[in-house]
Task: structure prediction
Amino acid sequence: MLRRLCLVLAGLVLLVLVLLLGAFGLAQTRLGQDRIASLVAGLLGAPGQPAEVTGLRGFLPFDVTLAALRLRDGRGVWLEVDDARLAIRPSALLRGRIVVEAVGARRVAVDRPPESPAPATSEPFSLPQLPSLPSYVPRLRLQSLTVGSLELGAPILGQAVSFTLDGRTGTGADGQTA
Result:
């Protein structure tokens, strides 16, 4: 009886492992990456506010590039991201750390704030409650954060501006300091 139980458990573990490896392998194909891009667009979009995600490529989920991201509302495109990249060091995850080797984009443009959906209630406006911050975050190191052109339209700051962004950050060894 015990031997049969062990064989069934080993079979279940093997099945889960094969399914995970199959999903990982599918994510490395153009078909899989296009399907993931479609799912991401569906998650980012909303009724009447579609999202467009194109050119998702790379060694998912560790080195991902994205040709373009566009968020729209009833008045048109309000957010554009071109040539984005996220590269994570997988070996650091095994040590309980998150090492982001590079994150950024060639261009990020926020033309205007998105349209807000009509309020569902007649309650007066109030600021949302901020969530409480966790007491511990995993050890994180962001080695390179780069945005070649960060463009904000006139409705954001009163006049159109363009910046570049370059930096790095991380948490302390205790996970409580930045």
